[in-house]
Amino acid sequence: MPKHKFGNAQPIPDLLEEGDYILRVVDCEETISKGRKTNGADQLELKLKEESTGKIIYETLIFDESLEWKIDCFIQCFGIKAQEGQDLELEADDMIGLRGWVALKVEEYNDKKRNRVAVFYTDKEKLEAIEPDPFDDGDDENVPF
What we know:
By secondary structure, the protein is mainly beta. The protein has one domain. Helix content is 10%, strand content 34%. The chain has a five-stranded antiparallel beta sheet. Strand 2 and strand 3 form a beta hairpin. The protein is globular, with a radius of gyration of 17 Å. The two termini are 18 Å apart.
């Protein structure tokens, strides 16, 4: 008979408190923006996992002139090697496993609260990427047992 030592584990919280966290890219898709001001622009839809709780955070990088600053901050935060003025091709598959320090905020959208990245820290310790687990899609709710 299987035995288990009860530890009173708590479920993953719906929201994380505002603060600093380490996030890891667990999925990334190349799509096209449908935003009013950025319609038709390339974008990367990031699925980020907070390392201590497993909470999933979604963020989008839109390749539009008005949002280049955000992409620059992401590149620096997640340790992508680049030199000023260098043209980079950011492939979705190359993002998986990258890690970085961020500040999370809580925002309300359509009457629902959610975590969003407030700041991609560019001045904190650079973290080593983690090789992706081929069985980890970043969604702990889809564990196959």
